[in-house]
Amino acid sequence: MDLFSDPVSWSEKLNPIVVQYRDRKHPLAYQNPYQLVIMVILSAQDSDANINKIAPALFNRFPNMESLVSATFEDLFPYISGVRHFQMKAGWILETAQTLQSDANIPLSMEALTQLKGIGRKSANVIMKELQVRPTVGIVVDLHVLRVAPRIGLITATQDGTKAEKLLMQLLPRDIWEDIGMCISFLGREICRPTSPKCTICPIQQHCIYFNN
């Protein structure tokens, strides 16, 4: 079968993973918008599991944005020193707190979120998806999506998250943008692993270039 000439749309091909994963909560174990924003900033180039590990002590000490406004680098370091690039991220967090001042001022638009230090399009898409901001303005593209989408034949390979997002937005209908990025991400976390992918249990194997080649 020539998958590139397959008349079935990618929206239909991907529907099994949308059904399987769309109601799955993001792996970051946040409790409110403030925690989500801070954890998303910390999670850049680090694992969600590691951020979840350090989060309880961090948020016990700094329970809201207001509590961070008067914090210093030295105040933050003991709580985030186990995070990759924690010194740079401390600066991002403190600047964000100074900018927003309170939880009530957390923005919910792509333009406003990406003005904050440490938040790019991927992070903004995660925040807006988790906080159910509609209409969806983009697709979450993390490292799993960058690996899986080209592997299955969805887009051409690229390490540029913005380029990958643009390609996906051109290919897929807007009504699945909200879910599809994290659905592909969960597929990559659980089945389409970097090495030894579990192709035999993949719900979209019949449409996958990697599997069928």
TrEMBL record:
SUPFAM superfamilies in UniProt: DNA-glycosylase
Protein's UniProt name: Endonuclease III
InterPro entries in alphabetical order: DNA_glycosylase (IPR011257), Endonuclease3_FeS-loop_motif (IPR003651), Endouclease-III_FeS-bd_BS (IPR004035), HhH-GPD_domain (IPR003265), HhH_base_excis_C (IPR023170)
Gene3D superfamilies membership: Helix-hairpin-Helix base-excision DNA repair enzymes (C-terminal), Hypothetical protein, domain 2
Keyword annotations of the record: 4Fe-4S, DNA damage, DNA repair, Endonuclease, Glycosidase, Hydrolase, Iron, Iron-sulfur, Metal-binding, Nuclease
Cofactor(s) needed: [4Fe-4S] cluster
Domain HhH-GPD as annotated: residue spans: 42-190
Family as reported in the entry's similarity comment: Belongs to the Nth/MutY family.
GO molecular function, one term: 4 iron, 4 sulfur cluster binding
UniProt xrefs under PANTHER family: A/G-SPECIFIC ADENINE GLYCOSYLASE/ENDONUCLEASE III, ENDONUCLEASE III
